[in-house]
Amino acid sequence: MSQNAIELRGLKKTYAATKKTEAKTALSGIDLDIPRGSIFGLLGPNGAGKSTLINILAGLVKKSAGSVNIWGFDQDENPRQSRAAIGVMPQELNLDPFFTPGASLDMQAGLYGVPKALRKTDEILRLIGLEDKANAYARSLSGGMRRRLLLGKALVHSPQILVLDEPTAGVDIGLRQMLWDNVRQLNADGMTVILTTHYLEEAQEMCDQIAIIHEGALRALDTTANLLSKLDTKTLVVETESAAEISLPAGVTQSQRADGTLAFTYSRSAISPGEILDALRLAGVKILDIQTEQPDLQDVFLDITK
């Protein structure tokens, strides 16, 4: 059996022209392997094609070309099995306001054909922290509770793969931490997790590997550590006692931040921080404090999608 949870080959999607819109290519030939047991980040700006890709995986959108293999099942040959292997927590709050959380989970499990004796409604309610709200109408739940219920609905059929589409959009810090604790536990139990998010610091902290999609094409695919190491820039932040005219080495750019500190951005493969500090001392600048800043995932993202 393949070591990949998902394998995509030449995946394309073109939306046909309408009276009001021209034909649009959302995905232009994606080749992508997502390893089993990983937490995988799927990133890209708005309109990049992420939602189209997720909807194809979930069986909600029909691809134009290519192949989709989910947990060893070809989507064309075994659509039912491939769809059962994946659970999607959508970005939209699509809940029936007149159903209780317990009833919502039971109904969702029934739609997936899970027998009553095998349903894990109480267990899932405990996992998502809604055990005490099992009999409350969904319309009475807070926004954060509703988002937790969406996670529960994605888990009712015990999928091997969990897709989280912007799971922390508009939620508070406490809920965000609870969600990530749940995700880490599910992943530790063997579940493959695919995450899309605009909070790039979350992706940097959570994901083993990251794919960046832009304009329907795969622009980057690597481990998080390797992506971060590809940017050569680094910043030296210096707190000084007084300003002075500084003659900096070629290739170093200087800026002053709102707090008065000086930021020197340089290529770490060409210049050492010691050269910058030597230039400061030569200019008679008294240094009070020093710190360095490494590039983060946001820098990588902007560099790829600019």
From TrEMBL:
SMART domains: AAA. Gene3D superfamilies: P-loop containing nucleotide triphosphate hydrolases (3.40.50.300). Residues 6-240 form the ABC transporter domain. PROSITE patterns: ABC_TRANSPORTER_1, ABC_TRANSPORTER_2. It holds the Pfam family ABC_tran. Keywords: ATP-binding, Nucleotide-binding, Transport. Signal peptide: none annotated. InterPro entries: AAA+_ATPase, ABC_transporter-like_ATP-bd, ABC_transporter-like_CS, ABC_transporter_ATP-binding, P-loop_NTPase. SUPFAM superfamilies: P-loop containing nucleoside triphosphate hydrolases. It comes from the Bacteria. GO terms for molecular function: ATP binding; ATP hydrolysis activity. This is ABC transporter ATP binding protein.
